[in-house]
Amino acid sequence: MSKTIRTPFCLLVAVLVLLATDVVPAVGQIPGIITVFEGARLIPGDGSAPIENSAFMVVNGVFTAVGQQGVVTIPPGAVHVDLTGKTVMPTLVDDHIHIGYRKGTSFSADNYTRENLLDILDRFAYFGIAAILETGTGRGDLPYKVRAEAHTGARYLTSGSGFGMPDAGPGGAMRDAIYGVTTEAQAREYVRELAANKPDMVKIWVDDRNGTVEKLRPDLYRAIIDEAHRHNLKVMAHIVDLADVKDLLRAGVDGFAHMVRDKDVDDELLALLRARPNVFFLETLWGERRAIYTSRPVWLDDPILRDTYTADDLKQLAGQFSPDLAANPQAVARARTMAATSLRNTAKLYAAGVTLGLGTDTGGMNGGQFFGFGSHIELELLVTQAGLTPMQALTIGTRNSAAILGLDQLGTVAPGKSADFIVLDANPLDNISNTRRITKVYLRGEEIPRAALKAKWAALGR
Ligand SMILES: [Zn+2]
Q: 448 and 419: one domain?
């Protein structure tokens, strides 16, 4: 209710401020304050049909009117932007990211610096990703400090440090970032410590890493979930096994950072999920790309990759699809079986009406350094491998992913939402790979300086 009162008041204040600061009108009465984008095919992001020949207005970084050209009333003095022939979609949100460790081809805790975090947030913005969630591998206070900064990149949400058994959570350079717990009292104490920083989600790892580490015990995750809920925090679990997913649901978990990968989902799981309609799953298909593709993906030749990544990065990426993977045929066969199970389960859960969100694991062990690009490939995999329509995949990547993180201002192009959108040269409803035909990205009503970013990365050898 306060929102409906506040919005016109803010607008009035902004107009008065503009007049008071004597901004000279270039055209009309109140230029700069009202911008109308006209002529594009608009995909609203809520699953509804695209609006052909659309017009939408942006005032102070917020959409104020959205509809068809000729129907939306344009006040005199508005700045007009012609988008004829283009397609507009909402920005994406990626709910499963490990930011900071990857820098070029290196993977190290030494890379976890403010400068690298901000650079990665710019990379996401370049690709039209308006917000990301760092899932449990934050280091110290830095994530909270950077989260609070005004910057030009994607919005930075963080789980801070996640939870697992000691020395048994995330892999590689990220291993020491989490709280290792052994008692319920300790688990509750650490959740209270974490809660003081107001994390955007709590992350737990429930995985024995193919029998190599101890899996987080059910008594411990029950204590974590209960304590998190006392602090109004949601809990997202890294999982592999169907049996763990079922027990976590009984323990009250809010969502899953991956798909069920060991077995096909069954009626018992679907019944548990029907009782918990807000529970979400992220698929992390990008993270499993090596096991999904049996031949060289055509997107390795996508020009957008060369905008942001070095020849060394691209060589590393291409090498992940080379046939010498067969050096360890048993591991390859196991990974392929798990990936196929993930894809079947993604389709089954979607068909059952379960909430799916976009999450890629980019920056983690298998996600690599392809921040932003991976989020687009995840959408493509949802269509080409899991059998969803482009519209269904887009809705997962926009509205659903924003809603999972409670980002009410993102996810759709609609009046009252933040003016975050992507302008494309081709229609992703015709071919989902067209989400990568990006010509412009706007965050909070401001165009991201993509040419300058591209030049910056080129100067770094990227
Ligand atoms: Zn992860």
A: yes
Q: Could you tell me the CA-to-CA distances from 415 to 3, 55, 283, 311 in Å, in that order?
A: 12, 12, 30, 42
- Burial grade of 459 (CB within 10 A; 0-12, 13-18, 19 or more): exposed
99/72 same-domain check = no
Comparing C-alpha atoms, which of 397, 384, 314 is closest to residue 343?
384
Phi, psi for residue 290 in degrees, rounded to 5: -65, -30
Looking up residue 420, the CATH number of its domain turns out to be: 2.30.40.10
Q: What residues are paired with 281 via a beta bridge?
A: 256, 356
How far away, in angstroms, is 366 Cα from ligand 1 center?
A: 9
pLDDT tens profile 366-403: 999 999 999 999 999 999 999 999 999 999 999 999 99
pLDDT tens digits, 223-239: 999 999 999 999 999 99
136 Cα–ligand 1 center, Å:
8
pLDDT digits 0-9 by tens, 49-67:
999 999 999 999 999 999 9
pLDDT at 22: 35
Q: For residue 446, is pLDDT > 80? A: yes
Centre of ligand 1 from the C-alpha of residue 135, in Å: 6
Ligand 1 centroid–CA 140 distance in Å is 18
Cα(37) to ligand 1 centroid in Å equals 38
Range of 329's domain? 92-404
The encoded tokens of residue 34 equal 């009202």
96 C-alpha vs ligand 1 centroid, how far in Å?
6
- Residue 237 inside a domain? The answer is yes
- 228 and 85 co-located in one domain: no
Q: Is residue 19 part of a domain?
A: no
Distance (Å) from CA 31 to ligand 1 centroid: 45
Q: How far is the CA of 323 from the centre of ligand 1 (A)?
A: 26
Number of domains in the chain: 2
**What CATH number is attached to the domain comprising 207?**
3.20.20.140
In a domain, residue 5? The reply is no
Whether residues 326 and 437 fall in one domain: no
Q: 286 lies in a domain? A: yes
Query: Do 180 and 280 sit in the same domain of this protein?
Result: yes
User: Rounded distance, CA 224 to CA 202, Å?
Assistant: 9
Dist. CA 262–CA 387, nearest whole Å: 20
Cβ-contact 45, 398 below 8 angstroms: yes
**In this predicted model, what pLDDT tens digit does every residue of 245-302 receive, in sequence order?**
999 999 999 999 999 999 999 999 999 999 999 999 999 999 999 999 988 999 999 9
Q: How far is the CA of 237 from the centre of ligand 1 (A)?
A: 10
